[in-house]
């Protein structure tokens, strides 16, 4: 099952034309691509799915969602993954990641399938 997780934006950086940020997911900090929410500011909350921030979220809703995820054990799974995440770079290159249950896997960008 895939979930979009709320997180608080700690910093924002433009890297080779890609808007990237460090995001705190209840104590777990990951790097996230912010290109879908270019208006986001440090201190705001975003919903993140597979390394991409999809939308902004208010602080109250983020806190409620994080508490529910904590109760379900989803945040513990995120912490146990060792900080490895799946994020495509600015040119959609192949990024190697480790899956907790299935070993190494690769993610191919859209431009790579021609």
Task: Jot down its keywords.
114 residues; alpha+beta; SH3 type barrels; five-stranded antiparallel sheet; two-stranded antiparallel sheet; 2 helices; globular; disordered C terminus
Characterization of this structure:
- A 5-stranded antiparallel beta sheet has the order 3-2-1-4-5. A two-stranded antiparallel ribbon has the order 6-7.
- The protein has helices at residues 59-72, 74-80; strands at 5-15, 18-25, 28-33, 45-49, 52-57, 95-99, 103-107.
- Mean pLDDT is 75; it is low at 84-114.
- With 114 residues, it is α+β, with helices and mostly antiparallel strands.
- The chain contains 2 helices and 7 strands; from the N terminus they run E-E-E-E-E-H-H-E-E.
- The radius of gyration is 14 Å and the shape is globular.
- The chain has a single domain (5-87), classed as SH3 type barrels (Roll), CATH 2.30.30.140.
- A hairpin with a 3-residue loop joins strand 6 (95-99) and strand 7 (103-107).
- The termini are far apart.
Topology:
Layout: E1 5-15, E2 18-25, E3 28-33, E4 45-49, E5 52-57, H1 59-72, H2 74-80, E6 95-99, E7 103-107
Antiparallel strand pairs: 1-2, 1-4, 2-3, 4-5, 6-7
- With strands numbered from the N-terminus, the spatial order across the biggest sheet is 3-2-1-4-5
Cα-atom radius of gyration: 14 Å
Mean pLDDT: 75
**Secondary structure tally, helices:** 2
Poorly predicted parts: 84-114
Reading the helices and strands in chain order gives EEEEEHHEE
Strand content: 35-45%
Q: How many separate domains?
A: 1
Number of strands: 7
Estimate the global geometry from the Cα principal axes.
globular
Question: For the report, how would you describe the main beta sheet?
Answer: 5 strands, antiparallel
Estimate the helix proportion, in percent. 10-25%
User: What is the distance, rounded to the nearest whole angstrom, between the alpha carbons of the first and last residues?
Assistant: 28 Å
CATH fold type = SH3 type barrels
Main structural class: alpha+beta
């Amino acid at each position: 099952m895939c979930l979009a997780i709320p997180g608080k934006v700690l910093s924002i950086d433009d890297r080779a034309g890609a808007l990237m940020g460090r995001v705190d997911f209840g104590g777990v900090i990951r790097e996230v691509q912010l290109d879908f929410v270019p208006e986001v500011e440090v201190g705001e909350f975003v919903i993140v799915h597979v390394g991409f921030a999809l939308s902004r979220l208010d602080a109250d809703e983020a806190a409620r969602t994080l508490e529910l995820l904590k109760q379900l054990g989803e945040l513990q799974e995120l912490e146990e993954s060792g900080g490895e995440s799946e994020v495509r770079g600015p040119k959609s290159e192949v990024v190697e990641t480790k899956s907790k249950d299935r070993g190494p896997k690769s993610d191919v960008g859209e431009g790579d399938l021609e």
